[in-house]
Amino acid sequence: MEHAKIEQSNQDYRALGYSEELLPKGPQERDWGIFNYITVWMGAVHNIMSYMTVAGFFVLGLSVNQVFLAIMLSAVIVSAGYCLNGYSASKYGIPFAILLRDSFGVKGSIIPALCRGLIAGVVFFGTTTVVGAQSLNVLFARFIPNYMSIGGDFTIFGLDVPTMISYIILWVITVLLFLGGMDMLTVFGKYSSPIVYIFIIGAAIWAINIAGGIRPIVEYKPSTTMESPLVFIACVSALVSNWAGPIVNIADFTHRAKSPKAMIYGLSIGMIGSYLLFAITCISLIAGTEIAFGQPIFNIVDAIDKIQNPFSVIVLILALNVGATAFVVFGNLLPSGLQMTTLFPKVFTVKTAGILTAIIGTVILPWKLVSSTETLFFFYSFIGSMFGPIAGIMLSSFFIERKRRLDLSMIYVEEGHNGAYKSGYNIVACIVLLISFLLPMSGAFLKSVPFLVQLNNFAFFSGLIVSFILYTLLYKFNQQNVQNSVEKEVGV
After folding, report:
1. How many domains does the chain have?
2. Which CATH number covers residue 322?
3. pLDDT in tens, 188-235
4. Could you list the residue range(s) of the whole structural domain that residue 47 is in?
5. Is residue 368 assigned to a domain?
6. What's the predicted TM-score (pTM) here?
7. Is 346 within a domain?
8. Residues 27-79 pLDDT 10s
9. Which of 118, 135, 367, 418 has a 20 to 30 Å separation from 427 between CA atoms?
10. Helix, strand, or coil (residue 488)
11. Does residue 165 lie in a domain region?
12. Half-sphere exposure (Cβ direction) of 391: Cα atoms closer than 13 Å
């Protein structure tokens, strides 16, 4: 009976013009178990951007123990975010783009969807791909004589010719993988992760060996000292912000869960376990190479370039790019495609929207954003200020306002119908989103106001907490067409 009920509901939604990607998943389509969720981010954790972020921790004066604690605390926070924000989708089988309608309204959902799907997707695609391109330079330079001299001093919008060539190659590979569809992405995520792990462990062993063992790495002291405990919190916030996008749209993966428990166990084990190895590897590579070569290294690719064995360099560069590619495809192109398809179904398909994201991600000149620790952390404060409030509102809406129950008939509505909110906008959610974004982000510009500066340093946490509290206090002022007592629980 339950299966028939879901099929009938989906037929009704199809008649309203909803594509298959946006319909609630039935029992047969909920095919992701614990193992799928354990492996989905295992390879993506080991992306070059994350390594650069942790290298920045040492620049800011954190000790080895403090860096390790910051990484593992970030893993726990990210896991909690996944499980909490992914619960509703695992219960009802609906994707992120549709889930936003409940929190922000049928029309209001356009705002967070654009933030996640286009703005953040564009920026993350560009920055991750350009960092990957820089790593390919190291690879090509080992086998192509004078590769780094191609073009001489000529640059294209500030990017040298060799890096542009590497960027184009990686851009094409990433987009082709994305165009392969969800089945190919599932296989890629399942089998690429173990490959990444084999070689990353090898890199950690190499770094420990050149440093003279584990003890010198554990006893390593950065050249600067952490100025304040608040710096530690800011570092945790920055690393969490690296995963803020997937926290927000984790529903695009949990709506395929066989059960909420499969999602909760799998994501928790996968993220925390993956980050444990990431912490060991990252600290070993960053501290080990500085101990061995006498100079701090911000870009992990530069550390790998110190390896004399060409085969090892090839393997490690490719392994890191597999992780980075998984992060870009699963965490950015796919969500962008789904969000843009929901917003403009007559204009985009998931694939065309993903390609547009990749194109715009290049036009914004992303190499400018990863040129230093300062620009990288500014980037994370922007992302955190945007995603923290979205996640906070979604959590308050589902767990506090809705009491974990959704009315799908007010979400899947015919064109021209505004759903649960008379204007189509959850005005309270939209106002809270704006306030919760402006407060932490203003600290990046109003340096003379210490309170705002600290909010900006903890951008993701600030936005999440402020939005959750504000929405919890104000949601009762919403003007809704229906009460939550009338519910249509499909897929429960």
Report:
1. 1
2. 1.10.4160.10
3. 656 666 667 777 788 788 889 888 999 999 998 887 888 788 889 989
4. 25-372
5. yes
6. 0.81
7. yes
8. 888 989 998 898 877 777 877 778 888 888 988 889 999 999 999 999 999 99
9. 118
10. strand
11. yes
12. 34
